[in-house]
Design brief:
By secondary structure, the protein is of the alpha/beta class. It is built from 3 helices and 6 strands. Strands 4-3-1-2-5-6 form a 6-stranded mixed β-sheet.
Amino acid sequence: MTKIRLTKEFRFEMAHALEGYDGLCRHMHGHSYILTVTIIGEPIQQEGHPKLGMVMDFGDLKRIVNPLIVERFDHAVAVMSNTPTHKKLLDAGFQRIVALPFQPTCENMISYFAQVIMEKLPPTVKLHHLRLHETATSYAEWYASDNL
């Protein structure tokens, strides 16, 4: 059977601060993130199936990724939980804080995104790779083949 890779792009705006970092990113700042999600699988060949010829409906992939990532992180501030920055944001009354058990670097975020997406994919497809652009010229990549 033929394996096909299917890719969908997602965009969201998010601020973050890297607690204890020795560069400019220790200050709260924002990015326009672009997340590309690539799955791999075989097109459905069952006659009469409403998704005949599809590996996965793009709409189904959106219904997985949007609530897990886009709706959670868009226009939010991501910080490491239980840090002085986290406490200051809470004390200041910020509403959209995503407190994470790790430093919200591009590398840690993409690894986390891979984990949560894989848990929700149907068994007929596998996560192939992710790319997370933090800026127009900087991104991190995660490949399933590197993480067996």
